[in-house]
Amino acid sequence: MFFAATSQEAVRVRRALGEGPQIFVLNGPSNDIEVMQTNKLTPVLNSLAQIKAWDARGPAGLHIDTGMNRLGIGPEELPHAMSALKDTSLALLMSHLACASDTKHAFNGTQLRRFIDASMLFPRAPLSLAATAGALIGADYHFDLIRPGIGLYGSGALDGDNPTLSAAATIEAPILQVRDVEPGETFGYGATFSAPQKMRAATVALGYADGYLRSLSGRGYGVLGGAKRPILGRVSMDLIIIDVTGCAEAQPGAMVEFLGRNAPLDEIAERAGTAPYEILTTFAGPVRKAGARVINPFAPIGRGVLSMLAEIGRFSAFAGRAIAPALAAVLLRSVPAPVPADRLFLAAGRRRHRRLHRRGARAQHLCRRRALQRRAVRTEHCGARHHA
Prior knowledge:
- By secondary structure, the chain is α/β, with parallel strands linked by helices.
- The chain folds into 2 domains: 2-163 and 299-369, TIM Barrel, CATH 3.20.20; 170-294, Beta Barrel (Lyase, Ornithine Decarboxylase, Chain A, domain 1).
- The protein has helices at 7-17, 33-38, 48-54, 78-84, 106-119, 132-137, 265-272, 276-283, 301-312, 364-369; strands spanning 2-4, 23-25, 42-45, 60-63, 90-94, 127-128, 145-146, 170-181, 186-187, 193-194, 199-204, 221-224, 227-230, 240-243, 255-259, 293-295, 330-331, 377-379, 385-387.
- It has a 6-stranded parallel beta sheet, covered by helices on one side. Strands 8, 11, 14, 15 and 16 form a 5-stranded antiparallel beta sheet that branches.
- Strand 4 (60-63), helix 4 (78-84) and strand 5 (90-94) form a beta-alpha-beta unit.
- Helix 7 (265-272) packs across helix 8.
- The two termini are 31 Å apart.
């Protein structure tokens, strides 16, 4: 079972995985019904108009709006939806929590009660309410399966006190130049930082064109020699300057970590004043800079799943399913699956430059089906590896 936002994403996943797994399209059908039927995709129906358009052509999911007012069937529409779906096999009944990032928010309980009430009208459908943060609220929110999307990437998705999860991606970039700077000299555009004393600075081949947010100017850091090296001045399009005073490892060609085990996703997001989702989706395409690289992104995603499960609590068996930036599903109860053992994969995002990732827990099964992306590797003058 996989989830994609659009049918275009879902078709790429279908081509990679073959006919076995069930693939849900979260945005539902529009002018792509023929594509969905041809590729055996399962739409999530979000409105009475979508229910009518799908016209019981096959199994479908149903999204109930329990208060987010984004997508889904409203409470006043439920009787009409129940009647319109009498000939449709419901593969899933789902909703989405608006305030799960605050586990004590009163609206979580309101949505839970609304979802339970709505589910009474569809007693045979498997139920799913919680994504990552919702799963951390407690077992009452788990139902038949959960969708821990961001949790598989190393974020707890909470506003604070996030659990420590395994990092799923590492972003590194090479030092291009190292220089000694006298007191009073300034760094970068706008001269926003002045050296308070003699310093040693390194210029790194990474910038906002590569997805490193400009809001991290003067707030972010790189990790080198086992220590955090603050960013000096502004993040520019292609370059970042960091303080490497007293760091013997700071030499041209040395790789500096900007996201990963030593630069946790939730901490970087907090410093940037944004959500971890934006950090990941901004970095989701190939890092374009010469020498900058994504280190085996999501290869340890299996460990990410296990650490996520450990935080959530008691699970019996699970089948991991992931698609970025859509959602993963983890079975919590015995729900019939289209294949006996689904595998965990990280799949393409919503933009054209993303690719179905070939590495992940047991992703060798995916590779055997189709090599979706061949990455040429060349060596730059500094000795760094660039994946094109």
